[in-house]
Each structure stands twice: as structure tokens, then as C-alpha cells.
């Protein structure tokens, strides 16, 4: 009786939990304009006023939104556009053009994309798309025709703005800014970039035409706010179907926020990076551990997730190496110590290894040279060592100069955790003089 | 529907009836009547001015309906010399579909609407007129007759101004009634004639004053929804004319003697109510010979005339700032105004004058014309005098606070009239609705037609006659843009770089030099090159545009020979050789590949041509036209040296020594030494620019303007920057203000904030706001730099420092991956300059900020 009841309970739970996970994952992964904005109210107001003036008064504007990666630039603009489009008199009157520097890698492609997004191509027919020059003059003509009061404002959103600055002559930027500074079709040019030196990238003529408005997003919040964001990001919305469960879940999140170890984890995470995207990553990992048998997030989940996040990738690779490969790495470390970071070649490493095997080793088998060579090549494939020059055909592989891409501390840490590491190898690694 | 004979079905021949009246100013022959002979039948239709006519349109069933205002012959028009000016009526089916619901009832079959829309082109080809039609005006309470025997009667009850249906105004209504009763010939301004007969002692100056007066009254009547040529306006003139002769002159002299402000005010009123912009300076030029004459006759009049002359550009400027978005409508407006003027002038020769009067007229007229048709040398002097005058006026305008006050006094009146015409302005579509040449109603204002008809591509209709309509455009907005409501918004609109300034203060000398250069080349029919340099934002292109605008006006006034103006911009080309394509297309409308275009242009410029029109070519951003062989620059500078070319090339670039730096000797030698450099604006100049833009708008504290001018002058002298800062400051002022209805002045504090926002480096705030690990990584870099004494370090070196630092500060041990992420994060912000991350431990790191800045930012 009781088992059956618990089973049905489990079913409900599974259903609910998958819903919870869907809601939260959407929140973490999409820069959806439905989530809340944090600590950027001033910037948001500036942007929305600017857009409104373009949409309603037909005033041309240009603005750059600058902030490090993950600081919410795209979220900000999405929010602003969403609010703008909700205004009745604006929604019909505004055209949007979204460009991305990673997609529109040159002006030719960008122009085509603009024409497509402005729905001008059905006016043009196919013919004009013959050449880049015709395309440009066509688009300029089209934009020139309008004036402030009568034509529809266009909002240009240039994602990865800095990449547009690398286009030849910055033709696109010049023309967009020029239109925005002359009495033609009203334009709002909004650039999103993470580079602080973006103005130095602009050519002087382009720079003069840019209005020098900059909106900085700097993640300028402290840890208490970070905690609040954490809580808000994990809480279920009020419109979630099962009220009882929502209450329970949110209560557990509240507990989680007050938990000391969770705070510690968050503090560590906050110290490394303030951006919300990395927080989302952390929460995502923690969320994945929620199952029917374990329906609420716990502090342990958070700690686990954090450990996962802050793991050193190279140390993980070292854990999976064979003893021979470990020995080679230790030999390289000693060579580095002796020759002060000078590059080494296979022969040197092999000699060092030979010394160790002959004098001190008890457990390590004296491998033949081709076997050692194979292990050496494996290390190269794992990119733990790197050749100094390009591999050419006529250089002998034994004598190619190499560098180790592991730090001493990394090697020592990895060795400590290495399962079943022979003691003599460990001693060899710790000894400062390799042959003693 | 009624059947109307159209030209497609029967051939018709058009001929003038009666003797022409010559309009001297516009070179028109004006006629009162036209006869249309339909081939095959012997009937002849006589069409007279004032009648209602049917005009051939797209739809044979429903030809356009209009009232004939004027018939004239225009020699300047190449195809159809017989022209007519009409007042349009509109059928219900011609009203845009989206607006039809505004009527609120079902329209009657024979109902038409008075088309009260000044932007519509009223100048048509007279040969498109089909025949008469009878139009009956109905009062607002009259019912439209439903059972119609005669289908050719149309009914007018409402007027349509693209926004709303309105009942006909009483004046209009009266006019209709009158028209139906008497012959339209009685409509002629008799008063004018009588006046000119009766007052032999009157000089041309008085005449000019009267003209202004009359313009004033007509423009006054324009404010009513009726058309300029209403009987009411004419009646007024008649009244004026009937007053005793002596009284008029007394009045005039009195007005000019004791209250120059009064006549001035009249002018302003007339200027402000008529929204024309271009026509104004035109008038100024054309009236100048007439105004010159009185200088001999009497000093009072001359001073009066001068006053008028000076006052009018001033008010004209006021006007221009107020309606900056009004470009497309102007030309059409101008046309609707001209018939009045034409009527005035034309009435003179037809009058039966007493012998002595005729003599006097004849003696006077050559005098007046003399100014216009003397040797080019004199014109040259005169026009430069005019420009000098202009500059002087500007200076006077800026310097003379007294006159400013005077203008301030009657500013409210101007604003009232402005707001009354605001509705009209906001609804203006980008193009006139009815075009003159083919009479196809181009409904560009409704976006559907321009978007859905793929046949209107520039390629498919390459005829030079229609490219204007064929080029697609961004669709127009459904709701009109809002006009500025508050003082700050108004100021912001004026401070926008795109706002066309009424004058270009602080560039008088440069303006004069360029003007003289181009003008002398135009007068001599030779060519030449000029190189203009200056840092961005110093008004190079704006000044050249202003010069061209003035020259075009002068050309219209026949002060200089007419010329062809072409503009190319190096930055608007995809590739240097495209410049040939652009020039050719703008010159002839042809399309060709770059090489072919170069050949065609060379042929055109290097061989003798029949047409003697000079071409003025503006090449903006010249440095972009640089190629390895420099053939483009060579050609551009070589063509003007040939006599046949008649090409004046103005080139603009940023660097002063561009010819020496990048051009080969043979190119720079052809460019010649006519150089001009625009210096960056000084703080007082920037201040002057701001003040002139913000005239009559009290939005800024004086100190604030001075502050921003000094700041920008110290940084770059870029006028664009200056305007942008001020614009931003108005926003800040608006945000910071608590009460939204009465925002205060923009203060120094607001401006400082704006300047900070724009110019302060964001590196320090970025460092301050970065995470703990990022900050300690920066510290580690500094420590490593100090240790090694170099400005560069590998990641490995910094990492070991970083680990040590973290240990000291009690931070958890940073793993390599975390540190790498931190490093690349700082690199993506460009706080650090890093190599590509495939170098891993060996990637080299540099600071992109000075070490002192980092230290400052890290010091809490």
C-alpha cells in the first residue's frame, strides 16, 4: 500500500522535476528577455529612452554597449527591444536589422543581409545583387530617400561590433554613422562589444561621425547582490503549475542561500569570475544532479558542481597517463630545472630517463627506445609538450626541440593524486637533483 | 460611370487662344484660354482659366478632376511646353485605402473632394487636359443628390488634406458659387491694374513694398484652408488699390520712416507663414535689381528697401530652424506661390497705359534689367558683393543683440502660425503625389505600392526621367513622428548634427574663398581643381554644400551660368575605380563597368561638346581613391586642365599634406596649388556655433556652453563632438529633473557628466569592477614586470607570481585553467594584450593600460 503510494508520488515528482529543469535550463541558457535584469537599471533607462526617441521622434542615434563577456549586453538590448515593441505606436513603425560580426564577415555579406532584413530584396529583384558596388549604392539610395518625420526608423544592432571595424575601409560603419548624422532615414546604430579600446579601432572619420555614446556594463555588483541573483535565478516563478511544490522548492533554495558551505562555494566562484554566465554554468551542473530520489538541491550538489567547474584540465589529463609517460614528464621537469626553461629534445629526455632507471628505479621497467619514443609522441599529441618549430620532413624526430606545457606545481599536484604511483617515481619527482 | 474621351482614343490638338502675357521673371508666356480640337469631329473645346477640367490619368473611367489656375508656356521644359497649374480635386477611389474609413459614410458616386494638400505637385502638362466638367459645391447641410440625370456633374462637399475630411470653408464655398454664375475672366486682379495706372508717381520701390504687402495678405489667406488664389485675397488688394493715391504713398513712406519694424514684421509674417525655404533666397536675389533702382529716386525708399532686404534673410533663417524636416514640400510650395507673382508682373504690359506712363515704364525696366544682363565681370562683382552682404548680415545677426530682441518680440506670433501649420507639416509624404511629366499618381507614401511592385526597380526602368520614383525606399511610418514638446526636446532637435544649420558661422572666410573660386571658374567657362583639407568635424563638406547651394540659387537668378553638380564620396565606394561608374551615372544616367565608364568620361571631357554647361564635381574623402598607379587621381585632376571639359573639381580629405605624401609628382602638379585648410574650431567658434543653433531656445546656461566649447576645443575641435555632448547633456538634465513638466536649464554639472561619459577612459572602472582573481592577476603581472624589468612576460611567469600572491592574500590556490580563463577574459576586454591562446603557457602577456593606471585602480 505504502510502496504503491510512494511510487505514484515518484511519478508526479518525475513529471514535476523535468518541468523544473526545463524552466530553469531555459533561464540559464537563453538570453531570454523574460528574466530580470540585475544592477543595470541606469544603463537600461538610457538605452530605452534612446530607442524611444528614435522610434517616436525619428531622431538618429548611435551608441555602443561595452562590457566584458557575459555581462548581459545582449540581454539588455533584448529587454529594451521587447519593451519598445510593446509600445503600441512603435511596434508598427520600427524596422530592426540584426547583424553579427561573426556571421557577416565582410561588408558585402552584411549589405545583403541588411537588404534582406529590410525586406527590400523583393523591390530589387535579383539583378541588382550582381555586384557589391551596385548593392551599396542601392542601399545608400534607399536610406537616403527618407527623412526624419516620415520614414520608418531602422534600428541596427551590430553584435561583435569590433569585428565590423576590421572590414575594409570600415565602409559599412562609415555609411551607417554618416546616415545617422545627416537628415536621412532615422537610424539607431547599436553596437555590442566587449573591447574597451573599441574607439581606437575606429578610423578617425568614422569616429568623428560616431556620437560617442557609450553604455558600460561592468558587472559592478558586490557579493550580497550576487547571492540575491543566485537565489532569484533558482527560484521557480509564481506561475509554475504546482503551487505546493513551488513553495517547497523555493523554501529549499532559501535554505541553500543561507547555508554556509554554499556561500563559500559562491564566494569562491565570485572571486574567479563575476559574470553571470559562469554562474549559470555552475547552477546547470548542480541542477543536473536533481533526480526523483533527490528532489531538492543541496549544498553537496553545489560543492560538487564547483569542484567540477574549477578542475584543472591538464591535471586531469596527467591522471590518465601511463607510468612511463609520467616518468618522461618528470624527466622533462628536471631538464627544465637544470637548463632554466631551455627547450629540450627527445634524446635528452631519454638520457634522463635512462639515468633514473639505471640508478634508482626498482619498479620501472627499462623500456626500449622505440617504446619511449611512442610515449613521447603521445605526450605531444596530448599537447602536453609542444615543438618549438614546425615539424619538417628532414629533421630527425629525436632531435626536435620541444617545450613542456606543464608547470612544476601542476606536475607535483597531479602526481600527488595519481593513483598507484610508484614510490621511487614520486621520490624522483620530488628530489631536486635528478640523478641522486 | 460616365465615359470620357481620352487621348488614347482620339487625337487632340491643343492650341493657345489669345495673346500671351509675358512673365519676365520666370520666362513664361501666360495664356488665359486654350482650345482643344478633337480630330474627326469639328467641335472645339475652349478651356479657360478658372474652369474645372478633367485630366488624363491612370484610370480612363475616372480621370482626375482639377480646377485650372493658370495656363502658361514654359520654354525650359524640354518635352511639353504647354503647362498648366491646377488645384486638384480627389475622388474617393484615390484616397488611400487605409484612410477611407475617415469619411465615416458611404461616398456618393459623383462626389469629389477638394484636395487641400500643398505638397501635391500642381504643375501639369496642359496637353493632358481632356475637357470640362461641371463641379457643384454643396453646403455642409445639403444632401448629395442621388438621382443624377447628368452624369458629368460632380459634387464637392468636403476637403481632404491627407489626414482628415473637413467641410469646405465659407470662402471656398463663396468662390464656387461665384464661379458657377459668372465667367472666370472676371476673376483677374483688376485692382492691380488700376493701381498701376493711377499712380504714375510710384517708384518701383513702392511697388516692391506693395508686393510684399500683397504677399503678406495672400499668405495670410493661405492659413485658412483655402488655396492661395482666393477671391478674398484679391478683394483685399482691390481695396488697397482703391484708396487715394496720395494716401498710399504717405502710408508707405510713413511706414518706412517711423516704423521700419512694422514693415519688417509684415515680411516676417509672410515669410513664416509660407513654409518655403529655397524660394526665399531666390526671391532675395531676384528682387535685388528692383531694389537697386530706388536708390536713385529717394533715400527713404532705399533705406526701406534695404531694411526689407536685410530683414528677410533673417526671418528666413528663423524659419529654417523651425522647420528643418520640410524639404520635399518646398518646391511644390514655391510653385503654388509663383502664379501670384506671375500674375502681378504680367498684368503690367497688357494694361492700356497713358503714353507717358509707357515711356516711364520702358525707361525703368531696362534699368532694372540692367543689373541682370550686364557683362559677366559685373555680375561677378555683384554676386560677390551679395555674398559679402550675406556674411555681413550673419555677423550683424550674431553680434547685434538689439535686432535679436526685436525679433524676439514677434517670435510668439511666428510660433503660433507655426503650430497651426504643424499638422500640415507632419503629414507630408516624401514625394509629391502627382507628378508633372506623366501624371501618374505615384503613391509612394503608401508603402505597399513601393514594396509590392517589383517592376519599379532602378534596373528595369533605367530611363532618366523616372529614377526618382523607381528607387525603393525604407517604408514610411504609419504614425507620424512626434514633434518636440518641451524646450529640451526642441534644443535636442536643433543640436542634432543632422539639423541643417541656417548659416555656417565661423566659416565665412572659407566660404568666400570656395565661392569665389567656383564662381570665377563658372563665369570664365574654364575648369580647375581645389584641395580642401581639415580634420574631421570642421565643416568642410558642409561649407562646400553651402557654396553649391548658394551658387545654384545664383544660377537660378541668372547671376552665374547654370552648372551640373555631382558629388562622390570615397567612403561610399566599394572600390576606387567605382568612382567612374558613379560619376557617369550621375552625369548621364548611364550604367557601365568601371573601365568602360572611365573611357566614356574621358571621351566626354576631352572632346568638344555642344552643351556648354560646366560640371562641378565634389570628391569627398579623396585619400580613399588612392591606387597603386594613381590613375584615378591623375584622371580627376587631368580632365579639368582641358579647356573642353569645363570641369571644376573640389576635393576634400583630412590630411593637409596628402598631395605631397601619397601623390606622384605628375598627379600633385595637376592638382595645383589651390589649397585650403580648415583649422579645427577654437573654443570661441564652437561657442558661437552652439549659440547660433540654440537661438531662441533657452535651454543652456551660458557657462555651460562655454565649458563644453572649451573642453572640445582642447580635445579635438570637432563640432560634431560638441553637439553630441550638448545633446547628451540635455538628456541627463531631463533624467535628473524631478518634475517632468518644467525641466530646468542644462547646467555645468550636467555637461560635466556628459563630457565624463564620453571621454573618460573606461579602463579604470573596468579594473575596479573586475573580480578578485582578475585583480590579483593584474597585480601578478605588475610584480613580474618589476622583477624582470621588461614590459612583457609569458603566462607561465605570471602564473607563478599569481600563485605566490594568492598564497599571501589567503586566497584559495588558483588552478591553471581558472587562471587561463581569467587571462583570456582580461584579454578579450583588451585590458591585456595577449597572443593567441594556442601558445598556452608560453603566450606572452602585455598590459594595454599604463602600470600607473592599474596601480591606481587597484588601490582601494
TrEMBL record, chain A:
One of its GO terms (cellular component) is nucleolus. The keyword Nucleotide-binding applies. GO terms for biological process: DNA replication initiation; polar body extrusion after meiotic divisions; protein polymerization. GO terms for molecular function: ATP binding; DNA replication origin binding. Signal peptide: none annotated. Its main location: nucleus. Component of ORC, a complex composed of at least 6 subunits: ORC1, ORC2, ORC3, ORC4, ORC5 and ORC6. ORC is regulated in a cell-cycle dependent manner. It is sequentially assembled at the exit from anaphase of mitosis and disassembled as cells enter S phase. Interacts with DBF4. Interacts with POLQ. Belongs to the ORC4 family. Component of the origin recognition complex (ORC) that binds origins of replication. This is Origin recognition complex subunit 4. It comes from Panthera tigris altaica (Siberian tiger).
From TrEMBL, chain B:
Residues 242-256 have a biased composition (Polar residues). One of its GO terms (biological process) is mitotic DNA replication checkpoint signaling. It is found in: Nucleus. Residues 433-456 have a biased composition (Low complexity). Keywords: ATP-binding, DNA replication, DNA-binding, Magnesium, Metal-binding, Nucleotide-binding, Nucleus, Phosphoprotein. PROSITE patterns: BAH (PS51038). One of its GO terms (molecular function) is ATP binding. Residues 204-216 have a biased composition (Basic and acidic residues). GO terms for cellular component: nuclear origin of replication recognition complex. Residues 45-171 form the BAH domain. Residues 179-312, 355-386, 399-479 are annotated as: Disordered. InterPro entries: AAA+_ATPase, AAA_lid_10, ATPase_AAA_core, BAH_dom, BAH_sf, Cdc6_C, ORC1/CDC6, P-loop_NTPase. CDD domains: BAH_Orc1p_animal, Cdc6_C. Pfam families: AAA (PF00004), AAA_lid_10 (PF17872), BAH (PF01426), WHD_Cdc6 (PF09079). Component of the origin recognition complex (ORC) that binds origins of replication. DNA-binding is ATP-dependent, however specific DNA sequences that define origins of replication have not been identified so far. ORC is required to assemble the pre-replication complex necessary to initiate DNA replication. Belongs to the ORC1 family. Component of ORC, a complex composed of at least 6 subunits: ORC1, ORC2, ORC3, ORC4, ORC5 and ORC6. ORC is regulated in a cell-cycle dependent manner. It is sequentially assembled at the exit from anaphase of mitosis and disassembled as cells enter S phase. Interacts with CDC6 and KAT7/HBO1. Interacts with LRWD1 predominantly during the G1 phase and with less affinity during mitosis, when phosphorylated. PANTHER family: CELL DIVISION CONTROL PROTEIN 6-RELATED, ORIGIN RECOGNITION COMPLEX SUBUNIT 1. This is Origin recognition complex subunit 1. It comes from Puma concolor. The gene is ORC1.
Amino acid at each position: 500500500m505504502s510502496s504503491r503510494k510512494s511510487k505514484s508520488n515518484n511519478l508526479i515528482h518525475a513529471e514535476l522535476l523535468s518541468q523544473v529543469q526545463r524552466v530553469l535550463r531555459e533561464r540559464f541558457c537563453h538570453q531570454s528577455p523574460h528574466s530580470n535584469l540585475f544592477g543595470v537599471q541606469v544603463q537600461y533607462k538610457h538605452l530605452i529612452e534612446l530607442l524611444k526617441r528614435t522610434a517616436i521622434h525619428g531622431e538618429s542615434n548611435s551608441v555602443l554597449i561595452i562590457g566584458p563577456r557575459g555581462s548581459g549586453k545582449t540581454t539588455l538590448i533584448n529587454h529594451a527591444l521587447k519593451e519598445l515593441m510593446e509600445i503600441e505606436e512603435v511596434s508598427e513603425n520600427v524596422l530592426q536589422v540584426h547583424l553579427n560580426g561573426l556571421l557577416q564577415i565582410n561588408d558585402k555579406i552584411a549589405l545583403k543581409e541588411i537588404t534582406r532584413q529590410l525586406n527590400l530584396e523583393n523591390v530589387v529583384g535579383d539583378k541588382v545583387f550582381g555586384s557589391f558596388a551596385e548593392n551599396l549604392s542601392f542601399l545608400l539610395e534607399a536610406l537616403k530617400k527618407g527623412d526624419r518625420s516620415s520614414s520608418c526608423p531602422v534600428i541596427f544592432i551590430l553584435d561583435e561590433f569590433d569585428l565590423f571595424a576590421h572590414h575594409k575601409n570600415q565602409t559599412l560603419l562609415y555609411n551607417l554613422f554618416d546616415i545617422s548624422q545627416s537628415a536621412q532615414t532615422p537610424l539607431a546604430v547599436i553596437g555590442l562589444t566587449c573591447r574597451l579600446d573599441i574607439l581606437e579601432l575606429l578610423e578617425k572619420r568614422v569616429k568623428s561621425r560616431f556620437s560617442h555614446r557609450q553604455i558600460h556594463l561592468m558587472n559592478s555588483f558586490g557579493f550580497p547582490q550576487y547571492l540575491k541573483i543566485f537565489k532569484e535565478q533558482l527560484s521557480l516563478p509564481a506561475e509554475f503549475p504546482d503551487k505546493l511544490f513551488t513553495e517547497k522548492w523555493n523554501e529549499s533554495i532559501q535554505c541553500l542561500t543561507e547555508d554556509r558551505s554554499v556561500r563559500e562555494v559562491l564566494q569562491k566562484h565570485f572571486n574567479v569570475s563575476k559574470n553571470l554566465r559562469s554562474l549559470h554554468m555552475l547552477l546547470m551542473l548542480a541542477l543536473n544532479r536533481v533526480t526523483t530520489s533527490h528532489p531538492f538541491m543541496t549544498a553537496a550538489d553545489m560543492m560538487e558542481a564547483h569542484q567540477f567547474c574549477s578542475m584543472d584540465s591538464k591535471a586531469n589529463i596527467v591522471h590518465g597517463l601511463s607510468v612511463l609517460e609520467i616518468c618522461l614528464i618528470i624527466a622533462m621537469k628536471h631538464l627544465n630545472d637544470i637548463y632554466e626553461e631551455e627547450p629540450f629534445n627527445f634524446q635528452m629526455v631519454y638520457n634522463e630517463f635512462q639515468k633514473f632507471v639505471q640508478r634508482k628505479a626498482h619498479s620501472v621497467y627499462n623500456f626500449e627506445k622505440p617504446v619511449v619514443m611512442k610515449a613521447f609522441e603521445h605526450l605531444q599529441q596530448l599537447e602536453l609538450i609542444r615543438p618549438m618549430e614546425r615539424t619538417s620532413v628532414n629533421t630527425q624526430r629525436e632531435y626536435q626541440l620541444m617545450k613542456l606545457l606543464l608547470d612544476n606545481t601542476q606536475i607535483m599536484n597531479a602526481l600527488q593524486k595519481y593513483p598507484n604511483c610508484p614510490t621511487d617515481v614520486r621520490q624522483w619527482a620530488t628530489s631536486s637533483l635528478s640523478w641522486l | 460611370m460616365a465615359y470620357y474621351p481620352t487621348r488614347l482614343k482620339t487625337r487632340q490638338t491643343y492650341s493657345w487662344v489669345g495673346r500671351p502675357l509675358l512673365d519676365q521673371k520666370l520666362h513664361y508666356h501666360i495664356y488665359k484660354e486654350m482650345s482643344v480640337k478633337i480630330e474627326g469631329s469639328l467641335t472645339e473645346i475652349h478651356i479657360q482659366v478658372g474652369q474645372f477640367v478633367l485630366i488624363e490619368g491612370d484610370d480612363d473611367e475616372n480621370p482626375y478632376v482639377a480646377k485650372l489656375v493658370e495656363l502658361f508656356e514654359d520654354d525650359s521644359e524640354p518635352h511639353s511646353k504647354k503647362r498648366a497649374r491646377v488645384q486638384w480635386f480627389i475622388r474617393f477611389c484615390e484616397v488611400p485605402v487605409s484612410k477611407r474609413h475617415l469619411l465615416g459614410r458611404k461616398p456618393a458616386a459623383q462626389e469629389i473632394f477638394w484636395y487641400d494638400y500643398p505638397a501635391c505637385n500642381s504643375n501639369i502638362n496642359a496637353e493632358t487636359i481632356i475637357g470640362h466638367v461641371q463641379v457643384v459645391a454643396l453646403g455642409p447641410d445639403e444632401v448629395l443628390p442621388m438621382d443624377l440625370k447628368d452624369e458629368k456633374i460632380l459634387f464637392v462637399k468636403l476637403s481632404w488634406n491627407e489626414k482628415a475630411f473637413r467641410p469646405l470653408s465659407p470662402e471656398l464655398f463663396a468662390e464656387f458659387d461665384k464661379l458657377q454664375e459668372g465667367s472666370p475672366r472676371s476673376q483677374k486682379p483688376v485692382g492691380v491694374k488700376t493701381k498701376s495706372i493711377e499712380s504714375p508717381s510710384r517708384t518701383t520701390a513702392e511697388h516692391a513694398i506693395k508686393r510684399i504687402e500683397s504677399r503678406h495678405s495672400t499668405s495670410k489667406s493661405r492659413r485658412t484652408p483655402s488655396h492661395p488664389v482666393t477671391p478674398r485675397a484679391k478683394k483685399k488688394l482691390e481695396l488697397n488699390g482703391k484708396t487715394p493715391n496720395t494716401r498710399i504713398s504717405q502710408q508707405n513712406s510713413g511706414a518706412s520712416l517711423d516704423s521700419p519694424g512694422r514693415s519688417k514684421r509684415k515680411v516676417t509674417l509672410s515669410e513664416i507663414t509660407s513654409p518655403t525655404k529655397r524660394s526665399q533666397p531666390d526671391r532675395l536675389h531676384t528682387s535685388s535689381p528692383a531694389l537697386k533702382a530706388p536708390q536713385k529716386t529717394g533715400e527713404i525708399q532705399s533705406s526701406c528697401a534695404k531694411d526689407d532686404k536685410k530683414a528677410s534673410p533673417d526671418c528666413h533663417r528663423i524659419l529654417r530652424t523651425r522647420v528643418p524636416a520640410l524639404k520635399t514640400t518646398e518646391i511644390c510650395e514655391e510653385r503654388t506661390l509663383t502664379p501670384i507673382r506671375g500674375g502681378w508682373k504680367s498684368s503690367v504690359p497688357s494694361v492700356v497705359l497713358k503714353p507717358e506712363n509707357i515711356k516711364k515704364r520702358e525707361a525703368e525696366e531696362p534699368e532694372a534689367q540692367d543689373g541682370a544682363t550686364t557683362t559677366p565681370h559685373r555680375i561677378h562683382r555683384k554676386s560677390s558683393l551679395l555674398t559679402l552682404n550675406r556674411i555681413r548680415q550673419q555677423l550683424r545677426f550674431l553680434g547685434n543683440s538689439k535686432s535679436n530682441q526685436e525679433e524676439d518680440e514677434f517670435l510668439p506670433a511666428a510660433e503660433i502660425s507655426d503650430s497651426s501649420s504643424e499638422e500640415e507639416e507632419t503629414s507630408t509624404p516624401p514625394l509629391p503625389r502627382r507628378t508633372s511629366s506623366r501624371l501618374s499618381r505615384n503613391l509612394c507614401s503608401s508603402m505597399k505600392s513601393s514594396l509590392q511592385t517589383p517592376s519599379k526597380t532602378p534596373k528595369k526602368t533605367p530611363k532618366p526621367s523616372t529614377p526618382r520614383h523607381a528607387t525603393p525606399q525604407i517604408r514610411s511610418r504609419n504614425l507620424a513622428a512626434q514633434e518636440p514638446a518641451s524646450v529640451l526636446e526642441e534644443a535636442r532637435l536643433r543640436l542634432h548634427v543632422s539639423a541643417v544649420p541656417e548659416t555656417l558661422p565661423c566659416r565665412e572666410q572659407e566660404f568666400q574663398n570656395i565661392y569665389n573660386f567656383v564662381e570665377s571658374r563658372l563665369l570664365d567657362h574654364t575648369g580647375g581643381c581645389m584641395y580642401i583639407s581639415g580634420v574631421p568635424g570642421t565643416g568642410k563638406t558642409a561649407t562646400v554644400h553651402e557654396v553649391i547651394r548658394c551658387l545654384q540659387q545664383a544660377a537660378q537668378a541668372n547671376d552665374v551660368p547654370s552648372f551640373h553638380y555631382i558629388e562622390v564620396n570615397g567612403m561610399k565606394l566599394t572600390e576606387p575605380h567605382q568612382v567612374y561608374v558613379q560619376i557617369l551615372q550621375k552625369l548621364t544616367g548611364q550604367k557601365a563597368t568601371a573601365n568602360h565608364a572611365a573611357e566614356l568620361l574621358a571621351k566626354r571631357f576631352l572632346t568638344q561638346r555642344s552643351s556648354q554647361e560646366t560640371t562641378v564635381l565634389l570628391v569627398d574623402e579623396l585619400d580613399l581613391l588612392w591606387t597603386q598607379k594613381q590613375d584615378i587621381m591623375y584622371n580627376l585632376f587631368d580632365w579639368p586642365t582641358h579647356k573642353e571639359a569645363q570641369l571644376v573639381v573640389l576635393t576634400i580629405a583630412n590630411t593637409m599634406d596628402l598631395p605631397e605624401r601619397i601623390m606622384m609628382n605628375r598627379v600633385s602638379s595637376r592638382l595645383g596649388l589651390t589649397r585650403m585648410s580648415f583649422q579645427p574650431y577654437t573654443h570661441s567658434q564652437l561657442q558661437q556655433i552652439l549659440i547660433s543653433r540654440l537661438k531662441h531656445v533657452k535651454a543652456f546656461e551660458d557657462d555651460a556652453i562655454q565649458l563644453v566649447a572649451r573642453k572640445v576645443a582642447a580635445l579635438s575641435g570637432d563640432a560634431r563632438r560638441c553637439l553630441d555632448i550638448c545633446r547628451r547633456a540635455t538628456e541627463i538634465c531631463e533624467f535628473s529633473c524631478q518634475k517632468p513638466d518644467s525641466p530646468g536649464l542644462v547646467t555645468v554639472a550636467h555637461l560635466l557628466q556628459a563630457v565624463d561619459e564620453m571621454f573618460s577612459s573606461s579602463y579604470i572602472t573596468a579594473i575596479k569592477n573586475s573580480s578578485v582573481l582578475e585583480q590579483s592577476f593584474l597585480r601578478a603581472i605588475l610584480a613580474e614586470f618589476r622583477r624582470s624589468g621588461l614590459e612583457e612576460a609569458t603566462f607561465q611567469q605570471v602564473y607563478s607570481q599569481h600563485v605566490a600572491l594568492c598564497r599571501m592574500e589567503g586566497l584559495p590556490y588558483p588552478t591553471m585553467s581558472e587562471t587561463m580563463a581569467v587571462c583570456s577574459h582580461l584579454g578579450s576586454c583588451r585590458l591585456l594584450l595577449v597572443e593567441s591562446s594556442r601558445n598556452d603557457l608560453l603566450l606572452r602577456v602585455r598590459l594595454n593600460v599604463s602600470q600607473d593606471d592599474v596601480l591606481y585602480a587597484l588601490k582601494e
